[in-house]
């Protein structure tokens, strides 16, 4: 498909649809702003689905459009340019769906992919526990099968993003009693709204409660709600992390460019752009962003669509998260003393509020989806072949 025609198609659709009752969503709901209009943002997900803009990289047999990455990139660029809001559906669309397409049974694919694609079912990720973060294999949440075959769960997950807005959670739990490490884990799909599950919000320094503790006390899910075989959950969990650190970040990059533009606008308006040291840092940020974009494209094979992640991905998480954390710091330096006073929550999409959110939330970028230290270990061991630490 012709790129410029496709670009125009996206831009026209966004202009026509991100209007009227959806207009208040422009540039809202991004990192640090997750509590903005959740119900309306779910309706927006359905609007997007209606336009055929969900599952762009999925194979056509699963209801996707099988678009090459270059066009997916164009979609994200135009989405952000138009002020498209943060996506509540991204965990389902970009993490679970590719995992189901790669490793799920046809029954699971038929059961769960349509709900994700149509913006009807929302997903959370149940990996981390109080004693299992970087060392994910230390998971202690247990699961077992009742006589009727249904799965039961007991334990606690933590830092679970958007669990309070989700219908389902994918959970890595220990199914083989007495097993340790990567062995004996299973990857279950569990409905969140049931008596055996409690969700407790955890408020972050952004002021938002984007993530939660999730407690399982005899929670139940159907016998066939398992991806892979019992005891083979580690393999599935790692495949999903490959998508988390790879293709799913395409859209996020575009938000970065919007944030950088906001920062430049503020610097021009308040005179910070005339400070040589700040000018230099702004230029370096712009150059860094081009590098991220190029590396993003390089690491995702054109023909691989939603599934191929190349070795270049090893440096990607480390690169983007540190770039973004620096951007948050730079934003505060550009704003100056005005940044020391927290912008009002009703300041909407004002630049000051938005850039403060970038500063606060970007502190978490070098933690979630693998901390800086873990990324450096991965680069050293897998990329450079150095001995395990
Ligand atoms: C905003 C946000 C959203 C999140 N959302 C989710 C979610 O939706 N679902 C989910 O399951 N999890 C989620 N997480 C959790 C995230 O995956 C964990 O925080 C992360 O894996 C780190 O684990 P931890 O917090 O237990 O820290 P720890 O693993 O305890 O690490 C503490 C410190 O020790 C260092 N460290 C640990 N091991 C090593 C090592 N081997 N070598 C060198 N240094 C080491 C770490 O780098 C870190 O600095 C989220 C986290 C954040 C911040």
Verbal overview:
- The radius of gyration is 21 Å and the shape is globular.
- It has eleven helices and eight strands.
- It has three domains: 86 residues, Orthogonal Bundle (Butyryl-Coa Dehydrogenase, subunit A, domain 1); 109 residues, Butyryl-CoA Dehydrogenase, subunit A, domain 2 (Beta Barrel), CATH 2.40.110.10; 138 residues, Butyryl-CoA Dehydrogenase, subunit A, domain 3 (Up-down Bundle).
- Helix 9 packs antiparallel against helix 11.
- It is of the alpha+beta class and 389 residues long.
- The longest helix is centred in the last third of the chain and has 24 residues.
- The strands form two sheets. It has a four-stranded mixed beta sheet. A four-stranded antiparallel beta sheet has the order 2-3-7-6, with no helix packed on it.
- A hairpin with a 5-residue loop joins strand 2 and strand 3.
- The structure holds flavin-adenine dinucleotide.
- The site of flavin-adenine dinucleotide has 17 residues, from strand 1 and helix 11.
């Amino acid at each position: 498909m012709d790129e410029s025609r496709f670009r125009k198609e996206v831009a026209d659709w966004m202009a026509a649809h991100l209007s009227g009752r959806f207009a208040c969503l422009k540039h809202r709901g991004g990192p640090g702003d997750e509590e903005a209009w959740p119900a309306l943002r779910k309706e927006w997900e359905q609007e997007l689905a209606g336009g055929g803009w969900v599952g762009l990289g999925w194979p056509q047999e699963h209801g996707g459009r099988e678009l090459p990455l270059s066009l997916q990139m164009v979609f994200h660029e135009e989405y952000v340019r138009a002020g498209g809001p943060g996506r509540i559906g991204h965990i389902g669309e970009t993490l679970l769906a590719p995992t189901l397409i790669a490793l799920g049974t046809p029954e699971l694919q038929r059961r769960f992919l349509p709900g994700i694609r149509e913006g009807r079912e929302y997903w959370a990720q149940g990996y981390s526990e109080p004693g299992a973060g970087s060392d994910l294999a230390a998971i202690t949440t247990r699961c077992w099968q009742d006589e009727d075959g249904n799965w039961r769960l007991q334990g606690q997950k933590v830092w679970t993003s958007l669990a309070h807005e989700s219908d389902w959670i994918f959970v890595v739990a220990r199914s083989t009693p007495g097993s340790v490490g990567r062995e004996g884990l299973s990857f279950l799909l569990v409905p969140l709204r049931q008596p055996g599950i409690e969700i407790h919000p955890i408020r972050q320094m952004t002021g938002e409660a984007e993530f939660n503790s999730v407690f399982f006390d005899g929670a139940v899910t159907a016998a066939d709600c398992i991806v892979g075989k019992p005891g083979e959950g580690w393999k599935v969990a790692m495949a999903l992390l490959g998508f988390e650190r790879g293709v799913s970040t395409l859209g996020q990059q575009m938000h970065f460019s919007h944030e950088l533009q906001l920062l430049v606008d503020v610097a021009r308006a308040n005179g910070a752009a005339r400070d040589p040291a700040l000018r230099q840092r702004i230029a370096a940020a712009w150059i860094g962003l081009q590098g991220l974009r190029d590396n993003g494209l390089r690491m995702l094979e054109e023909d691989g669509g939603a599934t191929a992640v190349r070795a270049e991905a090893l440096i990607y998480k480390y690169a983007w998260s540190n770039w973004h954390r620096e951007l948050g710091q730079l934003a505060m330096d550009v704003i100056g003393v005005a940044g020391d006073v927290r912008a009002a929550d009703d300041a909407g999409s004002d630049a000051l509020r938005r850039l403060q959110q970038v500063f606060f939330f970007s502190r978490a970028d070098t933690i979630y989806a693998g901390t800086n230290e873990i990324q450096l270990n991965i680069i050293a061991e897998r990329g450079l072949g150095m001995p395990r630490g």
